[in-house]
Amino acid sequence: MALDFTAIDFETANSSNASACAVGLARVRDGRVVETAGWLIRPPAGHDVFFELNVRIHGIRPEDVVGAASWSEQLADIAAFTGDDILVAHNAGFDMAVLKRACDATGDDCPPFRYACSLQVARKVYRLESYRLPFVAAEAGFADFPHHNATADALACAHVMIDAATRVGAADIDGLAATVGVRVSQIAVAEVPAVSLAVA
Question: Would you say residue 24 lies in a domain?
């Protein structure tokens, strides 16, 4: 067993979970960050309007993603980076919904990733006034990062999980989740109904 996982963070163009416009990734091996990556995404058609509120939050504008790969074009890159890792995200329900809804919007098969939530873990391990990522990351010893930069947020999330596992003596994400009392979940992928070949 080893503390191996990939932290992930998405930014969205608008209030639609399908409107992914950036992704950040941080790979952890044996409790150490060994690689990070991040890139812009052209949101799926019909989900590609940029709201002013979202632009104010992350600074990504429509013109920034004109030449970016589409969701369908870069989904394989996300899957290749993460491999068989458990995904970790801060408020993972949001980021997993982005994965699922963007795939729904484009007709792509969503990988059935297993995932854990660093926000849930932080609420069990730390005693803080706020559990927003900047406050939690500071408690984990990772402060002063550009919040809402997808790669920086993924890196901060990775450090939170590494610190939490160290504090409770967990050897891996499943052990951490079990120790603090949170679930490792899995993205539900709709099953294709069986087709009967019987002749009436």
Answer: yes
